[in-house]
Amino acid sequence: MRAPSVSVRVHFETRRSGRKALRIGPAPEPPPPGRIPRVTRLMALAIRFDHLIRTGEVRDMAELARLGMVTRARVTQIMNLLLLAPAIQEAVLYLDPVESGRDPITERDLRPIAAVADWDRQQQLHSQLRMTDGGSRATHDASQWRHDRECSYLR
Are 82 and 46 in contact (CB under 8 A)? Predict the structure, then answer.
């Protein structure tokens, strides 16, 4: 007579503490290679912050700063990403994962672009930013464009 047997799929899961635990069921799929760029996470955070303020869950950006234990200036920098043209926001949200090295675009690269009120001009500056390795040239162009624009009002 043969002994009854039970067949169960199991896998080992590594906990945060580093200990391994036996789990029942198939192993979860491994995460995709690379990491999400920081500016993508900040853009998503800005959208979330905006939602929290609009729904009244938090009173204002100062309260967000207190809750997040950051300065009000940093919250303002993050929220200013919402001033980007919608197409640029979408491009930032769908940046490819970074396999290694630095992020191709940083939040600091986008600050001067967000400061430009004209979305068409923002698109031009963003395309220049993508063509360069980083934002130094596009940042300079945005600053120069803003300066020229301000000077034209003074004339």
Answer: yes
User: What's phi and psi for 139, nearest 5 deg?
Assistant: -65, -45
As a whole number of angstroms, the distance between CA 54 and CA 35 comes to 30
What pLDDT band is residue 155 in, cutting at 50, 70 and 90? very low
Distance between CA 110 and CA 126 in Å, rounded? Answer: 8
What integer pLDDT is reported at residue 141 of this predicted model? 57
Contacts of 133 (CB under 8 A, 6+ apart): 104
The pLDDT, as a whole number, for residue 137 is 46
Domain limits, the chain: 38-96+106-154
- The whole model's pTM is what? 0.71
How confident is the model over 89-140, as pLDDT tens digits?
A: 999 999 999 999 999 999 999 999 999 999 999 999 999 987 775 544 444 5
| Other CB atoms within 10 Å distance of the CB of residue 58 | 17
Angle at 37 between CA 36 and CA 38, to 5 degrees: 115
